[in-house]
Amino acid sequence: MLHGMADEALDGHTPLLGAVQETMLVTLHARATAGDADAARLVAAIDYDFARFERHAGPTAVFHVLRSNAMDEWTRRFLAERPHGTVVELGAGLSTRGDRLDNGTAHWCYVDLPDAAEFRRALLPDGERRRTITGSVLDPGWADEVAAEPGPYLFLAEGVLVYLDPVDVRRALSIVATRFPGCRIALDTYGEWIIAKPRGPLAGMAADLVWSCEDPKALEEWDLGLTLRESWPLSRPDWAVRRGLSRRTRAVLAGINTFVPRKMTNTRVNLFSVDAAD
């Protein structure tokens, strides 16, 4: 159960969110339809028309879940190596990753804009090793609060940077790289075709997709000390993620890889390391 909360404590919450922040509900709904019990409880508790996403509960939902599962896998690996470290979710939304993966010793920081942070705290209160931090990924102020938690650090930017222009993407990553040398950061990237023609529930949202990235290795040239460690398209997931997929999901991915042009599926998940200070 979410943070030990009773179901009745979740009832009747209406989201009053900005355009980008509202997209957190797409990912939440996708996880709920994929069988995430915590996400399903949140969906049931939020006063929102989730039915608008139902017709996209096929491939689009699969991609959202695969993206989340990839971040889960990298989080598991990090905690296996650094069980007392800190996982930082940038633009955290209503992520339930801390409930799924907490090992009893890790620390969790959830950074988000004021309206999203307030909504998260109402549904997922902070705890002894969990903190919701109010701030923009473009404002270095949040880093001071994260730095108060024990390192090393894993940063997750899931479904966040795509809403920023390239200059701001670089600025956000610069804050992480400058303040937390030696950390790792996982993020998703999208090809130009996807940015130009959003599909599924995102096509009906007010937020605009902005940052396109055909090749995530190009970020190594930004002089931020980033090194690409892992990268793979969501339509061809890593074996550790693939082994947990249902037969139906594998069939959906096989169809996508067979019949859909690669430019239309150039959505990737990527894990970078940041050079440690000399």
UniProtKB/TrEMBL annotation:
Domain of life: Bacteria
GO molecular function: methyltransferase activity
Pfam families, alphabetized: LCM (PF04072)
Keywords per UniProt: Methyltransferase, Transferase
Ranges in a coiled coil: none
A GO BP entry: methylation
PANTHER family, alphabetized: S-ADENOSYL-L-METHIONINE-DEPENDENT METHYLTRANSFERASE YKTD-RELATED, S-ADENOSYL-L-METHIONINE-DEPENDENT METHYLTRANSFERASES SUPERFAMILY PROTEIN
The name this protein goes by in its record: Class I SAM-dependent methyltransferase
Organism annotation: Dactylosporangium darangshiense
